[in-house]
Request: fold
Amino acid sequence: MISIEKIKPIHPFPARMAPEIAFQVLNGLSKKSIVLDPMIGSGTVMRTISELGYKGIGFDIDPLAVLMAKAWTSKIDDKRFLKQSEKIVAVSENHRMMDLYLPWIDDDMDTKKFIDFWFAPSQIKALRKLSYTIKNSRHEYADIYKVALSRLIITKTKGASLAADVSHSRPHKVRETNNFDVLKEFDKSCHRIVQTLTSEKLKGKVSVQKGDARNLVSVKSNSVDSIITSPPYLNALDYMRGHKLSLVWLGHRLGALANIRGTSVGAEKAPDRNSEIAQVQKVLEKMKGFESLPERIKNMTYRYAFDMENILKESSRVLKENKNATFVIGNSNLKGVYIDNTLIAEAAAAQFGLKVVERIERKIPENKRYLPPPKSSDKKGLNGRMRTETILTFKKAK
Reply:
């Protein structure tokens, strides 16, 4: 029997799905089933699927989420992995700075300025060496070493950057100097991954790749037996705000990351001009106080509603008839106005033949989310938006 408590994350993530939700959904499902998570986030569903012996397919538009999920569901030879990690450190130590060329940084002034702001010179040198070595190692575990590097940066307090709260996706600069030993800590990070991964538990076959839940082009219609996912919450957490601090060391230019951030589900952005908003207006205008919100906030909510429509449309397309899709959704509090995101999801699902068969309200355990400590006085901030989540189960009509 697999223990829920023993599924430990391989990398910090600001809002992880509770593994017990995935366990409950998978209970009784045939082992031949194909399970889809179109928005993998931290990779909890993918890891759970693999431990329980299912075939899983996962997507995300966030490159770091894809790396995390791939690493968390990879089988490794512990000794071989650690031996190679020692070699990476040794090779990195011997690099001459003049020999290192990282084109996504060296040929992009915005990315270079970003790095110079968030990192001290000593850590920049060490991270350049480490990034260059991993990039050119072509080792079978290269993606996992990238996760090990990212763990040095995506931290709550002190790490390789000059920021704090990076793991909460709220980075703010708190120091001007840093004595963090990048290469020494990278070695520790690799050992921690080995302890966390426990790859002997992986029994299922999982495929993880970059992709958009709103357009699952590589997934055939009526091919999936179950969907388990948790869409980003409207106006709750800006994942890319923190993740870009590590992604700029993993081959990504700042401008490209900004594009991903601007097109993500839940982005604070108005819908496209050619969007038909009449349908989503009918849903949102039922919510008390919605009309009093500033136009910018209303437009952002319209966009979220459109995104949910596209997600549910694609979910319905790929799901087999009479099969279930489980969505874990959090509601929002915008300028004191309660936004029922579950109502948005239900309205979208109904358009595409998905019927609600179960709705469970779940209080978010304060010690299970990678979030700042809640404050009872905070009614409009992060604490006000994320006290509960709803588990919605849809069934696709025959």
